[in-house]
Amino acid sequence: MLFTKARLHIKPEIREWIDEQWPWLVEKLNMGDLAEHLVIEPTDEFFPDKWEASREAVQNLFGTVVEYAEVERERVLLGLLEPQEEMPPALVKQDDKYLLPVEISELRDPTVVVAILSRKLALLRLLDAGLDLKRDDLPLLMDLACVVMGLGIFNANAAVPQVPR
Amino acid sequence: MNWPMYGYAFGKLAKARGETKPAWIKHLREDTKIFTREAIKWLSK
Predict the structure, then answer these.
(1) Nearest CA to CA, how far is A60 from chain B (Å)?
(2) Per residue in B1-45, pLDDT tens?
(3) How many other β-carbons are positioned within 10 Å of the β-carbon of residue A125?
(4) Cβ of A141 under 8 Å from any chain B Cβ?
(5) What is the residue extent of each domain of chain B?
């Protein structure tokens, strides 16, 4: 068939949720014109530092993602943890800084590290914007915020087919 | 979010950036890429 109708594969209520949250996120994250922001790609151009599972390489990657997330570098610290039974918190407030805990078992794949850090940094920016942490849709909102911030490719490639996380 | 949700979100991102064939789409996994292309088409109606 030469001509096929475009169709969406999401329920109308999901589309409405995204349509409602999108302008709210653009405003709250102070993004302005999205065409003026980069869409971050998993390429050497965006991540020129050589990757290896070392503290130096992880810190370099952390600095790069913090920059792309438009968060002030001095506000955040990377915390590398041994694997835990329970998932570590997304953010830990330490005086005037935020610690971003990452389990060392996640360091095998740098794209996964970028996905994890992007989500944590999106949450930090949403906290700065006065987000209510009790919102039921918080996990979805963090994913959507990553897309708005231009960091969504990494989380999308780590996403699951159908069941919302 | 799941793949179809990401597809729609990326469709909105492309529209907001004035892109009909965004170069960055090639970095998405194949299934999400298909959902994104469908969303771009749907949003351009």
Answers:
(1) 22
(2) 999 999 999 999 999 999 999 999 999 999 999 999 999 999 998
(3) 21
(4) no
(5) 3-43
